[in-house]
Amino acid sequence: MIKASDLTKKYGDLFAIRAIELELDEGDLFGFIGPNGAGKTTTMRIIATLLNPSWGEAYVCGNSIYTSAKEIRRLVGYMPDFFGVYDDMKVIEYLEFFAAAYRITGKERRRRCNEMLEIVDLDFKRDAFANTLSRGQTQRLGLARTLLHDPQVLLLDEPLSGLDPRARIEMRNLLRKLGQMGKTIIVSSHILPELADICNKVGIIDRGVMSVNASVADVMKQVREQIVLNIKVSDPQKDATLLLEQHTTVDQVTAENGQLVVTLKKGVVDYSDLPTLLIEAGHRIHLFNEEEVNLEVAFMTLTKGTGAKI
Description:
The chain is an alpha/beta fold. The chain contains 11 helices and 14 strands. The chain has helices spanning 40-47, 69-75, 91-101, 106-119, 135-147, 165-180, 192-198, 216-223, 237-245, 273-280, 295-302, and strands spanning 2-11, 14-24, 29-33, 55-60, 63-64, 76-79, 153-157, 184-188, 201-206, 209-215, 228-233, 250-256, 259-264, 285-290. Helix 8 crosses helix 11. It is elongated and about 75 Å long.
């Protein structure tokens, strides 16, 4: 659906993006992570044919950004991070205006606009003026506008920005549903842990260079060389510590906030015998889980924190 090769944009001596490689299939949800100015928006604007690269190539559904811009724009829905609304238009009028621009006419136009309002949960604001909406409501209106022409590819720049917790959950569910419908989605955000919930692939970009481009599971593996377990047992905790420290799979054990933090040796992925070991020694287990690494930790680790301000 989307393929980019050696995609580069240069302004004078400054590289906005450098040698971006990207390949996404139908139904992929790609999380684009990076600090401000890293090159996320530049990459998305090039794919949307709104900006020409200095060199390199990109294809959308087999169409080249150089020779098939019109075809690509029919297939792509692009939602920028900030966009204006027309002060004198009501919400429903705003959508109908853009539906007309997409040449959606007659009863189909009204049906499509009503459907989009229901999807983004803005039906109750249909007769409100667009400039009276909150930031979160404006974001949802922007997404509704982006979906009007039923695009195969969605390029969403900071779609979760400004949304309240309930709206974020609804937006994530909507993005998952769109992915299940076969739409290919690129979504950028600074709300890093939330991307792990909705994306199956992730790219980490910093200073124009994409340092990571892999599945979410593979990114986590790069960050976590050793598995960490959180264990809480009945007293005596000291006995449990000694018991675990002597096990061949355990690297170290520390006590934190009334529980044991157990770091396994590098390469160890099977720790299924540890609960049995504790139970047979007479300990009651109140907590036993593997510590998760979220995308925020992965981002800071893999970019070494250079210029990264979240």
